[in-house]
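Appendix B.2, paired examples.
Example (i):
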Amino acid sequence: MIEEAEQYDKKSKQYENALMKAAQQICKNLPSAHPLRVFLHLKHGPYPFYEGGFANNLKEGQGTVKNKDGSIYRGEWSKDKKHGKGEMFYANGDTYEGNWQNGKKAGQGTYHFAGKGCSYRGEWVDGKITNGEWTMDDGVAYRGEGFNNNLPDGNGYFTFPESDHINLHGKFVNTEWIPSSRYSK
């Protein structure tokens, strides 16, 4: 069993060495090409396809990745993960623009739902919205102090722009809205 593993490792290294030689040969004829990028393309195919900065063979700095499903991320990278400001264009048409930390949405950001016409804007932690504003396609907006699993949770209020700016205060408990008061601006 150990002998088979060693033989596999040896063949794998030979394969990677052959790919690197091919990448270097390609780059001789294409001066703008980067050998590591060409190597990764040869090894993994065209998707995901990354164009941008590298450091220690990891995505670093500004870069764009295009995935097989059609989604695209354009922004900052650190140690091979989305990190810093960036924008994600999902295959279903949804978009997110904002901050990332260790590959997840973090800090301020806005997520637009393409098919529903609504959006979340606010604070994100570990890939989930934690507080902010949820705006519907008709302009009705919910502003809340908390979200749980990307759903409103806790105290907040709805604003109805077409109704003399009436605000309806209350709270969400287990996804159920419980109104407490209303007033006009």
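Example (ii):
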Amino acid sequence: MHVEQVVQIPFFQGLPAEALRQVAANSTMLALKRGRILMSQHDAAEHLFFLISGVVQFYIHFQGVDDLLVGTMREPGALLGWSVFREPYRYTVTTRCEEDSRRTPKSCGSLAKSSWNWCRRSRVSATCC
């Protein structure tokens, strides 16, 4: 990712230039197709995601009932995977790409993937956390 892309994400606005460079160096852009699972409920939360474009849906699985839709997100810059910040560090919902993005045909849109390990090691961990 480029620093110019990182500063467009509200979560990172106001960070010092060096911190933004580190975030950019440790982040990647993903373009996911409709129907793709971004994270699964109960999996280890190792990454933080930010929605750049497109739409995702959140599901909670209930044994014997199947998956229940509990929310939809389409707000650019939205943080996904906040479970990286809280014990037991497991995703609490399954997140699925729902709609194609107008900007990225045949994809759920763009997502910025950032490593929680970077945030933990970083000098600005208090800002991240």
